[in-house]
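Throughout this chapter, every protein is written as a compact record of paired, labelled lines. The reader may check this reading against the record printed directly beneath this paragraph:
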Amino acid sequence: MINTLKTAAIAALVGLSTLGAMPAQADSLYLGSGDRHNDSRFGLYLGDNAREYRREYYRDAYRDEYRSERRCSPERALYKAQRMGIRRARITDVSRRTIDVVGRQHGDRVRVTFARAPRCPVIG
């Protein structure tokens, strides 16, 4: 039992001394454990990768949500058409690139086509 404890203590001392002998360039040490994207992880990261690791995680997590905020949604196109003075506006067609809204303005029927880009530009 004593021999096992001595061996473990020597192994720990050797391991800690190798961490102290690492070059000064690797000044950032990140010991990570946990759950990322539903797979268990345990790792030792050396260098300045911890910041990039977190940046990639948040970029992947919120990428779809951020894109959906920027694109023109049918609700936004309808709101913009009403702000343009089109009464009884309704959406008639939604495609991958355009949103068509019809309604009445000054007693005439009007049709406005919005692009799916940010801020819903009018294209027709």
Remarks:
- The chain has two domains: 21-70, 74-115.
- The radius of gyration is 29 Å.
- The longest helix spans residues 49-70.
